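Chain X:
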Amino acid sequence: MIRRLALRNWKSHAETSLEFGKGTNILVGIMGSGKSSLLEGIAFALFGTFPNAHRKSVRLADVITSRPEEKDSAEAELSFDWDGAEYSVRREIRRKGPGEAELRRNGALVAVEPEKVTAEIERLLKVDYALFYRAIYAEQNRMDYFLTLDPRERKRQFDELLGIDKFEVARANAGTAVGCLKRAKEEAERQVAGTDFAALAARAEGAGKAAAEAESALAAAVSGLASEKEAGKRLRAEFSGLERAKKGWDALQEERAGLEHSEKMLRADAERRRNSAGGAPGGAAEAGRAAREAEESEAKAKAGLKANSLLVMALREKDASLRRGLSELEALEKKKAELEAFLAGAEGGAAGAGARAAGLKARREEILGSLADASARKRVCESALAGLGSAGCSCPVCNREIDEGLRGKLCGEREREAAGLEARASGLRKALAACEQELLASEKAFRDAEFAEKRALELGDVRAGLDAARAQVSENGRMLSGAAGQTASLESALESRSAASRSLRERLAFLRELELVESRLAAVSGELESVRRRAAGTEFDAAVFEAARKRLEESAKKEIALEGTARLLSAKCETLRERLASDEKELRALSEKKAEAERFSSALELAMQIQAALVETQASLRAELIEAVNETMAGIWPSVYPYADYSAVRIEASETDYLVEVRAGDAWIPVEGFASGGERACALLALRIAFAMVMAPNLRWLVLDEPTHNLDRNGIKALVEALRERIPSIVEQVFVITHDESLREAASARLYRLERDKEGAGPTVVADLA
């Protein structure tokens, strides 16, 4: 039995410690409050993993708290009783570096390191993680989930729960292997059918003899070629020296011819340039001075034009500013004229409008006083009428009872008086409304007149400013016109100076090019004289060179002929060797195919035997497991289903599907499509308990995550009763994670509520409600 679970820095659990008891333990809370993390902590403490981590949906390090502050490690510690002893297992996960684990028995250390702790727990409980997940741990949405699947997927997942899904995979693989082996055997037999192995061997032997003869002839040809190449090597060494001497002689002759041509061309170019320049190029320095003076004059003209352009730009900006000010003053003059015209039409001006408004206010107060008096007198009449209308009324003066005649007379007088007062009040209200409308108009006229007087006073004498502004605009326009004329004059002068400067620069460039040509002419003339001296001292005999060249050509021809013979013999040898290799390869390949066909035949027979054994084993194991589950459910059903309409529940297994069925009378009917939500819940709960008892009989635990998913109100009610009253008599300890508050009633051991400030990323807070 699990006694205690403690989590530290595990997702939203900063420091959480829970005690559990025998029976049904309920953990209730809203989505995201940290409920499922507790079940993950139990699985991790026992086996070092949990469903999402085992499926690689998350990494183990992802459970370490990251909000509001990132932690470096997380820890899960679980205490449980087993076989008369108390065990405690603690595991730690770290962001960096390997985790730690330890297992203690009655306080004494039993095992350390994650793998060794897991192995020891599996040995103790006789359950590994895969069996724990299939038999004990009912993950969220997995209770009613099987009924929504199509038959093929339902069969696959039931086989996985029973642990026989590996047989289906092996069976499919065996079928695939049988087909592949059969096709391979038939193909190998087809490839060797009708083959004459003796003829192939004889053909390969003949090809080997022919190849040996060709290789002997090739060796003789290669030997003769080597001798001729040695002789050619000596001749090439002799000719190489003569060839170097010839190349040197030819290079000198070619260099001399090139320099003579260059000298001629440069001399003609220099003469042409001298004639164009009007004599010797001694005037380059003078031309340079003239060009610099022209450039300085051009620069001064540009500076003057730039200064004048800036002046024009400033005058234009000032003109725009003055015109904007003039426009604003003209608008003010117009506005002042409008205000003066408005005040001329207002009787008495602002003072007259204020006096009229004050008179209307006094009139309104007078009307309001008359209206209040009429309303008060009317209320007195109505009060008197109310008193006269009651039985047994008496005179307010003499306290004598008033008879019916007098009462009628008094009532008539009061009603007429009240009607007159109402008529007067109505007239006064109309007069008040008219007075208030007239007062509003008068007050507006007063405000407008007062504003007009203040604004006209503020504007003052606009005319004087307007005349001054117009004079400034006129003066600035005159200055702008003069500056614009000066710009045209400066631009013309600049153009003339720029043309003169360009002409002088062009003449200077021409004279400098003439100097460069004459310098190059002098250098070429010196080089030509040097080459002529070197050519006069060089010796070269053309007849000796030609004789050596002919001897070398004859040796090369003989060498080529011998190389051709060697290549032909080599090609023949290669062809014969390839033919021999092909014949030998074909013989080996066909022999291997023959042996391969025999091996495939033996392997096919063995694969068919394995396939038949897998089918028989899978069917036998499925039948035994389903029989055990059904027998267990037969004993469980009366405890989880309190009614008599369905007397039993079972799993009906076939090669294509698993059906969960209940018995109504003598007939078995599937729960899917026929049973209510509560009936399905009971059937699937019985199935889950049966799986736990059959697959892990020693470990009497059951873990349910959100078991009310897809259940209606009746189903939830039936589940509550089963968890509280009946399941604890079958399963020693049940853990239920839920957000459904109605499952609180199912607790027979401990009841906890989990809460958390999700918006503020706060830690999980656990309240003990037991």
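Chain Y:
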Amino acid sequence: MFSAFPFFDPFSLKPILMKRLLKKLLQPRHLEYLEVNESLQIIDMSSGVKDLADDPAEVKPGNDIRLGFPEFFGMEEIIQDVLEEKQDNLELKGIARCDDPQQPLYVDLYAISYPDDDLPVNRLIILVEDTTDRMIMAQKLVQQNNETTLLYNELKIAKNYIDRIIGSMTDALLVTNKDGKIKTINPATNYLFKYTSAELINQSILLIIPNDAIIPKVPRQEQNDRKIFEDREFMGQTKEGKEIIISFSCSWIKKTTHDLPEFVYIGRDITARKQAEQALEYAKREAEFAAKIKSNFLANMSHEIRTPMNAILGMTELLLMTPLTPEQIDFATTINQSSESLLGLINEILDLAKLEAGQMKLEKANFNLSIFLEKVVDTLSATAHKKNIEITFLIPNNVPNNIQGDCKKLEHILTNLVSNGIKFTQKGEVYIQVELLEETEDNLVLYFIVSDTGIGINSTDMGKIFKPFSQLDGSTTRQYGGTGLGLAICKQLVTMMGGKIGVNSQVGEGSDFWLTLPFAKQSYSQVPVKIASPLKDYHVLTIDDNINHCYMIRNYLSDWEVKVTEANTAEEAWNFLQKSSHQPGDKVYDLILIDAEISGVDGVTFGKTIKENPRLASIPLILMRSSQQQELARQCLDLGFFADLVKPVKAARLFDLAIAAVKTPVPKEIDSPEVLISTGLQTEKVEDRRLKILLAEDNVVNQKVALKLLENLGYTADVVTNGAEAIQRLEQMSYDVVLMDCQMPVLDGYQATQEIRRRWTADRLEATQIIRRPVVIAMTANAMSHDEQLCLDAGMDDYISKPVRLEQLRAILTHWTEKLFEQSFS
């Protein structure tokens, strides 16, 4: 405490004067004092000393100082030494008087002796100082020092951690100043460029990246985005002069607000990747070139093969329509069948090649499921009927008919599966069944089953039938033939469409090929509005022993709100008819559908029995027969049947005939077998609405085939040998249809069609009073997947591929006859 009072000597003053002076000196310094005798009893004290005592009540003259200041307990010997001046003083610092952290109180005690003039002993002066502010400040300083030390240690740990991370980076890291001088690098930079740190530090980055673009401009202060560039490729150079490709990203940083920016580079060696990319790009170009060569080869092969095949199949088909001896018919039939097999083989190989080359693309179109399946089944019905096999399809009423999807690929799949069913079935039937598997507001998943009653498949063979070129056992292959490609193509198409395919089969019990495929629903605006059926509440009796065919007919009739009674045998049908004819004039059934072959008796004979019964004779009869039973058509009409239907029965044809039958009291004889347009009894021959046809074909044999096919259908045609001649002829004469080959000299079919579109505009039609521009139908050997679209893109209206079949040509000309004569084409 003497350091606090260096300007006076207390022992040089008289006791009274010293006390007065002491009070004046201590008062502004927050100091209090106590005067204590040798027995430690308080003699005198300042007024505020009690506030700094441990027990203020005990601090008063005459009391032992230790009662108010217990810190002196145990200090008696030291106090005695101070009194005897053996020790200069006694100091006790940092004594806490209050435990409340919100109101702390700290004091320092300082004891010295001085002589008593009245007695031969010394007195003890104890100074008590309130050091609370100083202690709090000291504690804060200690705490701050501790926190600073802790923060420093943490920063040191973090720096070491970051240094280890940077050191372990495989990417090069460089920091440069604004001029590109290198300040910091990591070990990966040394490894990448083969320089030591000493060789790179303070050198320009241009030493390793000799490109001025690597040094960016100094960013503006207000620029928020610190990233300057990312993944920019530079050619680098190692110490040995080796060139490497580096992908750099660059950002700017500042140490402080006032410092100039520095640039941080992160670089990665992409030399190997770029070399791999170049190799891959080269391989890709080579593959694309090879694929293009392969595609062109396939297209040329397809065209070149189909051209002679068109002549072989066309002429053979025409030959079979001429008077021939049985032996000649056998020869011609063999040629026709062999040609069909060869064409099927070619188609399968081309389809597989197109799939493997990725040339097949998914399409999306609206179609009606029932009409679509009718077409599939109708196409194959003749083949099935030749083997006396029934072919039908079943669609429950809960399956939506108007859907959206790739109907062409679905047709390819189902045609292949049904063809296989017909091939491997000797008796019985093949039928397609459709079920609704899943349905949402906009989409659905359909489950197709193609079932047959054929030879079945061994369980050991089912795992390989979907692999290319896989066949069943050798004996089966020899008996039934085939390439083993059809099912492999089906599997790839189903997978491409997002579905699955499989088979369930047992030897001798037939096979069930199944597939699931997703489709979209047509929007409400695209779905035809269903109108009230004109057949509502009519009653029809169906007589057929084929359950699946009965189900199909019942679905049709039920959809038209017709009451249906089914009989599976002639006996059962006769019982129904007898019950309905108890009262004279009582006609319970409005129409009877009779299958040509029912258990116990043929349909024509049973129909004759009905017609001979006076009470039943007025009921219209319709015979359902196969395409091979043409003679039955004449027989049933001679016996008074209303009409005959070729199986598989088409809904539209059945609907028209049913309406005509129930609305006509006396049935008329239907004209047959000429080509008829319209339905029911009101028929009109094609010759009344004859198309004027121009054939553009440069191949003489194909000209002959096409003209003979047209002649067989009752048409004639003018012939030109190239597109230029076709346009010239069209300028001279009006034609309804142009059958246009695509590959011709002078002007090919694509160019000719575009020119026709350009010339025959709406303005010209109006000016020349021509009703319509000619319809252009591609008739070409270009049969790759994209060829049809190429024709349509060129402006052609329709497409038919060679070899052209009589029925295909009939169908497409009938379609355009109806369209052209119903409305003006523009």
